[in-house]
Amino acid sequence: MDRLTDISYVKGILSKHGFTFSKALGQNFLINPGVCPKMAQMCGCSEDVGVIEIGPGAGVLTNELAKNSHKVVAIELDTRLLPVLEETLGDHRNVKIINGDAMKLDLRQLIKDEFGDGRVVVCANLPYYITSPIIMRILEQRLPIEALTVMVQKEAADRICAAPGTRESGAISAAVHYYSDPEMLFKVSKGSFLPAPKVDSAVIRLNISGRTSVDVCDEKLFFRVVRAAFSQRRKTLPNSLASGLSMPKQEISEILTRAGIRLNSRAEEMTMNDLAAITKELSNNIS
Asked: 189-234, pLDDT tens digit by residue?
């Protein structure tokens, strides 16, 4: 249904079903007619690829995904939107709506049940409050998907895609780069949504090969190091790691020296190889 970017039409359907936007759920529906076709084209879906969509809203992106893919399974948390989606997507026989929480559903089992061994991508317009948790849940579970394409606030997109070792990088940058190869696709103005948010958004794609970007001796310890390093990003590494790992600063300084890291370095200067080297020396120190 291509009228889903018509503001009057969308407002009419939402009003018909008594729907009002929830700030708690961060609901902002896309109404820019050029955005969703572009997302559907760039997310990796095709006639032989299935799509999992998280948070379909009124179904505008779902509509485009359904026209370009084998099958779309859309996960919607808000039960109030189920009758809306039934009306807006009723013409599509390759769309299945699941009422549930993407943070709680067994996504691996869902993929197996709905797509078998077929190729799968994930596509979503994510509310800001759940951006990082959703992305990390999908990546950490190492689901059998080829790519994760999401629309997030522009600031979050910049941080997620920032290369470790650059000023813009953070803990989420290191985590995302560990599991995937992220790329910025395009910017989306705040006027593209109903209601309009206060900031612009951007669409990013995380390409997933199934291999990590760097080999680490202990994955859990690696992420402890990442979280600790960026927990106090204004401080030098000896201070942030000592605080975050609850270890003596002198001991941390010795570990950093053995890893070849300058003691006046900060977390934002650390490449993936640097973080892996720190993890290795820390592991040797613990064992």
From this structure: 999 988 888 999 999 999 999 899 999 999 999 999 999 999 998 8
3-state secondary structure of 185: strand
Mean pLDDT for 233-255 is 95
CA distance 242 to 250: 9
Query: Rounded to an integer, what distance in angstroms lies between the CA atom of residue 79 and that of residue 65?
Result: 21
The residues pairing with 98 across neighbouring beta strands, listed in sequence order, are: 75
Residue 2 has pLDDT above 80, yes or no: no
Token pair of 63 as six digits: 């509509």
Q: Is the CB of residue 57 less than 8 Å from the CB of residue 125?
A: yes
Q: What is the pTM of this model?
A: 0.92
Q: How far apart are CA 148 and CA 206, in angstroms?
A: 5
Contact between residue 76 and residue 54 where contact means Cβ atoms under 8 Å apart: no
Assigned token pair, 224: 């402890």
Pairing of strands 95-99, 119-125: unpaired
- CATH assignment of 219-286? 1.10.8.100
Fold classification of 2-207 (topology level)? Rossmann fold (3.40.50)
Any bridge partners for residue 121, and if so which? 51
Domain positions in the chain are: 2-207, 219-286
Angle, helix 237-245 to helix 219-231, in steps of 10 degrees: 120
Radius of gyration of the chain (CA): 21
Q: Which amino acid appears at position 190 of this protein?
A: K
Short-list 24, 74, 30, 71, CA closest to 54: 74
